[in-house]
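Case study 2.
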Amino acid sequence: MAKAKAESILKAPTLKYLQSLQAELESLYKDQDTQIRDARSDRELLTVVPVDPKLRVSSVEVRDPTITDEGQRRVATMTINRPTCKVSPSRRGSDVSERNATLREQASEAILWAAGGRTPGMHTYEAVVDAAMNDGAAWTKLVFSKDLWDERYSVKRKDFGSDGDYDDETEEAKKRGGPPFEWVFVDPLTIYPVFAGRRLTEVLEVQERPRYATFRKYRLTTDDQGDIVPEELAQPAPLDTVDFQSKVTFLEWWSDTHCAYAIVGKNKSGSPTGRIVQTWKHGYGLGRPPYRWYYGVMMSHWTNRKVGWGISQSKRWLVQYRSFIATVLANVAARDALGLIYHEVPEGGAPHLGDDGKPVVKEDLEFGFVYHGRPGEKFTPIQLGQVSESLKIQLSLADAWIEKLETPRLPSQLSGMEGAGFAMTTALHEATLRDHPVVASLESGLTGTVEDMWAMIRHKAKEKVWAWRDGEDSAFIGLSPDDLKDAVAVSWQINVERPSTELIRIRAAHERLQAGTWGEQEAVEYLGDNFDEIRLSKARDRIRKQPWYLQAEEKQTAQTIGVGNLVRIAAQIAQSGGNLGGGVTPAMGNSMVPDQGQLAASPGGGGMAPANPPNLGTSPGAVAPMAGSAAGMQ
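Prediction:
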């Protein structure tokens, strides 16, 4: 059994294997690659409107931005709030398990978010949502990057006198370096997965890279035949002969145990050439390549695909049709604006000759110019008919069809009730239904990614990983292999930005709480919060209302702002009933209340002590002397 298992594991690949795999997968996914390119062309408004030249009067072309706008808005609603991680404790009701679950939630969010911001450009989560919504799928890989912990690995035990100092410096170095992971977005147009049934077994990334920079990085060149070889086997080409615009293909291959990089291209005869430049065992312990996928709209009969549909795929042809009709109408408008003139020459009249001595059959007329014809000549404007009614109908139909595909979609019986509560709830429900397939896929992909991260902390990092956690209680937070021993259930929640939906959820939770059909924990978790965090926060609020806490806070505040003496004076006034003899509140500058303005008249108030300072040793309730006074200096 062990032997069979060992034989099933893919070993390091050969160059021939990678080149054959590239050709096979590019052929297999050809239609899906075309779908991605077409969808991007529509989104970037690059798709040419196919209007027959006979219908064109001008070069104007109307390209409908509906898909562009919808893609941007829907992505914004998904990414304006960060997703939240939810961990169910191994033993519900146990304080230890609850705190461990809270730690894993907070630390996982912080570590993954830091790992997704390692590369320039969009954050990985934003890129994932954008690709899932518009391309039909997103792909990411979570990789361990030892270089990020160079400072941590430079800390040596022999340089410290005690284990405690060594451990402290090690943890500080890891905090400065951040998590040793990179959560990388992979362009779905460049990725080619290999499935065995429904299990991911191999992944090949195919990228175009600049030839010269890539060759320099991996110390490669080409020989006389144009084959890619190491620099030591051929003389590198002089800079003045290098084509800096040329590119090579970079292959990145992953299995459950190995990773390999290769650079391939064509030699002078057009035959394949290339080199494997790096191969290693990654040791992630995942049992598959470190990739996760996040589909857009999928259908049940689709299997082993790298992309589904984007959210606008169902309306692409309608939008293209509307662009066609709008372009035709624009040309009709140009026709009406330019006008047509019929030039009638009298019978027997001499034709108008051009510079070449030949009769001018057609002349370009200018607006605002007065033409003087010969006797009998006529310039008659040609009156064209109105815009075809069928063209207007077709445009209205296209508008109506596209509008029906927008969200929210209200039933016809709710027409005129847009402000009613039921209509609002229905509209929100429709919007939720529209986004649900993509949201569910995103949440599933994030769940798998954080499970991969936990496995890599246990099997690859093998020590505590730190990240900075933003928020009200900003601080470093870490996860160690010991924190990940308990088996828990993990999930993610995408917080779509819909304030009205949130209000409805809050109202429902509060009503059930008041009716007694829910406990506090169920209500808090329904609203997407962590009950352990809320419980501790409420405990802090209760403590802050205690008299002893308020007194301590006031004393500390007074000491911080340097008015401790005034607080003691106020306390003495309060003890004396609000006045100091005769029912008259003392003014500043007497024996009990020093003149603060006078003390401020010179640096430190030196030499400006109040006359007859109180005897603190004998007078009951006496006031402490002011700093800088004579009594205070003794």
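The CA atoms of residues 70 and 406 lie 9 Å apart.
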